[in-house]
Fold these 2 entries.
Entry 1:
Amino acid sequence: MSKTAQLILDGKTYELPVTIGTEDEHAIDIRNLRDLTGHITLDVGYKNTGATTSAITFLDGETGILRYRGYPIEQLAEKSSFLEVAHLLIYGELPTKATLDDFSSKITRHTLIHEDMKQFYMAFPRKAHPMGIMAAMISSLSTFYPESLETNRDPEAVNLTIYRLMAKISTIAAWSYKKSVGHPIVYPLNKLNYVENFLNMMFAMPTEEYKIDPVVVQALETLLILHADHEQNCSASTVRMVGSSQANLFSSIAAGVIALWGPLHGGANQEVIEMLEMIQKDGGNIQKWVDKAKDKNDPFRLMGFGHRVYKNFDPRARIIKKACDDVLLKLGVNDEILDLAKALEEVALKDEYFIERKLYPNVDFYSGIIYKAIGIPKEMFTVMFAIGRLPGWIAQWKEMIANKEPIGRPRQIYTGPGERNYSNIANR
Ligand code: SDX
């Protein structure tokens, strides 16, 4: 069914085509607008602008729907594994057992990082934020694998880079934690699966074996699945933008890591725990902090609340909130911060300011409570988000390349000074 939009401008009527998506989303296609009308559109922050068409993830912010390649997030979180979801996102289909085993073993075989890269950790300052380390290390991978610079054309080279990224991000992350606590690094073990291997590299010590707890493994699998993709969010759009210049995949992913670090994006999960600890330290006066979050003159925001797209519950937050109770109970962890988070949510969701602006807990509001219960420090929370989001970033980059999308280059409306002549400094 074709549909058009009419634009009346300076007394002239223009017909613009309307693109309709699988889930009946409608978009006015303005690719010829400037040629037709001499006008561009202006939408700071792209709140109403679609940058692309995509077959990877569908989310409906009004009804709280999230699906990866059509599969509801609730089913994947309950029944799938992180590597199976990574395959689904990157290659478009749930793998057969043989395909998954092959994908998993290829990733296992690339978990080591070049011994020369180990030296980088000696140079980083002790308190270096692990997101800064991760961005530097992932970008440096392109210097150790120069053949990756040609990945845009050769599918096999793309796959090799995908295996290397999926495998090495865990090692890079775990080693940044070991660096931060002054413990010796732990090498990957091929006999362990993806999540077990990460946990072992994080927590095993030369003095004692790390006992892998299936409850912890399952909790991490679920968290990584829930973070795996989220259509055109800030970091995924950054990966697509950088990749559109034909920069290699390692560099495009490193750019995504840096975009995710921001406290308004993936950095929020660390901010949430710091906010809750601050409220707890301040005597737990929730109403005081909710009022501060509402006060336009106060820079304080309720971290982990609100979302550009979800104007209803973030389905991931609902799943994580439930998982919090299960995991903490099974681990025998009693964390007052969880009770504080629930109380804060209750107060906020009854407050007109939050109701009117449709501000609900997002994926970052509860995730840190589980990471904390597992023993992951808050500086590593956004690193965990990056590990989870990697397959989504790869899928978005791959789709942009496959669709032969043009280099991203938005327009602007200039509001600076009109033409003027240069004056010598003596005359200024
Ligand atoms: C992620 O895009 C994605 O999909 C991201 C993500 C993913 O999976 O990739 O889901 C992951 O980034 C989740 C969001 C994590 N960030 C936070 O939790 C930080 C706190 N949240 C906010 O900063 C904010 O809600 C954003 C950044 C998430 C969304 O900002 P928008 O869409 O630009 O909305 P806005 O800032 O224009 O807010 C609209 C109104 C404003 O009030 P008014 O000017 O209309 O009076 O709501 C207010 C805002 O002041 N508001 C908040 C608030 N969030 C929005 N007020 C208090 N506390 C908040 N958290």
Note: Strands lie at 3-9, 12-20, 26-28, 57-60, 65-68, 71-72.
Entry 2:
Amino acid sequence: MALHFINNRGVRSASGQTLPVTDPATGQAYDTLERGNAADLDAAVRAARECLAGPWGKLSAAERGRLLFRLADKVAQHADELAAIEQRDCGKPTKQARADALALVRYFEFYGGAGDKLHGHTIPYLDGYSVLTWREPHGVTGHVIPWNYPMQIFGRSVGGALAAGNVCVVKPSEDACLSLLRVAELAAEVGFPAGAINIVTGYGHEVGDALARHPGIDHISFTGSPRVGTLIQQAAAERHCPVTLELGGKGPQIVFDDADVDAAIPFIVNAIVQNSGQTCSAGSRLLVQRGLYEPLLQRLGEAFRGLRAGPPAADLDLGPLIRQTQLERVRGFLDEVCRDGLPIVAQGQVVAEASEHGYYAAPTLVRDVPPQHRLAQEEVFGPVLAAMPFDGEDEAVRLANGTAFGLVAGVWTRDGGRQLRMARRVKAGQVFINNYGAGGGVELPFGGVRSSGHGREKGFEALLGFTTLKTVAIRHG
Ligand code: NAP
Ligand code: MG
């Protein structure tokens, strides 16, 4: 029985209602969560505000950093436990669950060391004046976290917010709360004062909506779908609350015919298979220069046929998807592929040991996808790669920029001039040349343009977004 975490303790919902926690590998419920509502969210905001006015507001940046370092160590000691919780809750293969726990450690380390390097400036001004700027925390920050990488997204979002001096109210996805509730307990154990980190569980349209509307929340970080991102921003606009939105993408892998194909293939496969394709920065479109199109598809077809989805603990290439509706979403896209006669190059397999009640999808490579097809335009959030050919740089750029999104892009070419031309012309928050994702890079600012959202998380840049700048002008004569 998992409870909300408010004021450093587990609390029941005001309503007394709960929700089931389901194992995506079996479809079986194995625990319960509190079904929070606006009253619970309000209690969390009050706890956060008291903490800010009390112990948290008195800590120096260095002291906040020390707490984050202690939490990093604690999470590292509990990495196996957290990975096991996440594996069962979200269906992640062991490697992925462990990588997520270790990324959480790294986020707390990074932001633990960064907060006391965040400073303002002095500005030359009129005779008799001194002008300086201070970076101040927003106050109470709200964090709406999706189910695909709960630990990583908590790390980048809450880690950065705390380092900058904010206190946090977190609304995880109802499908992925358990690891974060445990991390909050660990934070209390290492000395985070009551109210610094609060977690309220429940449905997005209940607790998430209450968070977006609450006048006591001074900044909102949201990661999730464009649809809900719009709702959050509309609610926040009513009270002029700043928001950072990370809304996913339709990442193009752009492969020119001079590319190092041997190097590219494992990246191309991993970028759509990792976390069963449930990754905002997934490389879900494959744009290939015409001369390389057939040979590359042939080799990728072999690679896809070798991929296996199965029980998370078997640590195969893919685990199950998060929930039944996500599986139906992926199947819906594949039904359209069949209906429209698009050729499937290859599919991996779901192994026989996988429960028939689990939410498994076989990885699928589809070719000749028309650029305006829904599969080439919308985020599937499943292991489906849409391939299409192009002729030259101009067409590659047109296709790459031809969706509403702009989060991440990969460019594969040995031509140095082309690398830089493409990096400049592609509309995305991150461009990777001859790699994809650069290993996750806690240090690397991340975020989108257009429908992929706005604002940056990760890296030092995120700290700027978790603060507001105050200009102080002193006339001293
Ligand atoms: P979603 O509905 O946008 O969920 C993301 C977060 O927002 C969850 O914590 C969710 O809570 C919460 N939420 C839902 N409705 C809300 C509302 N009215 N007000 C405030 N918060 C709300 O995404 P989803 O339905 O889980 O996934 C749908 C699609 O979104 C996916 O197929 C994928 O394309 C995209 N997606 C993108 C990312 C990303 O990393 N950019 C992550 C997840 C999903 P509950 O889960 O408890 O409802
Ligand atoms: Mg679950």
Note: The longest helix spans residues 38-58.
